[in-house]
Amino acid sequence: MCRSPGGLTSETVFSDDFCSYPGVVHGGIVGTAVDDIMANLILLEIGRLTFTTTLRIRFIQPVETAAKYRIVGRITRHMPNSISAEADVLAEDGALSAMATGSYQPIRSAHARTLFGLTKDEHERLKSFLDTDGHARLSEEEHHG
Hints:
The protein has 4 helices and 8 strands. It is an alpha+beta fold.
C-alpha cells in the first residue's frame, strides 16, 4: 500500500482462485478489496477503527484475473459518528473498472471489548483507536510492522 495525503493506493493481481466465471473476479472479492482500502485509510488518516455500515459498488467493466489493478481510496466526509470514503478500481491502463462508496461507524471502546472478546491488555492497546478525537494515527512503521 502507498499512502498519500488523504489517500491510500494498493496494487493487486487477482488469481483464478477468486473467479465467479472463468477469468472474471467475483464481485464480492472486489467489494472486500475496496472496503479494506477504505477502512485502512480511515485508520491511518483519522486513527479510528470502524465498522462498515454501507458499501455500494458499481462495476463499469469486468475485473479480470491475472491482470494488474490499482485500488485508490479517499475519505470524502468525516463526522463524529460517521465517516464516508470512496474507492476506484483501475486497470493497468488507467481505465475505471469499478467504483465504490462506503460509510463507516467508529467503534466505541465500551463495545469493543465484548464484541471482539478482547482481554484487558488487548483492549488497552486498542483503546486509543476507539474513543479518540482523531489524533491517534499509525506511523508507517506501526502500520507495516
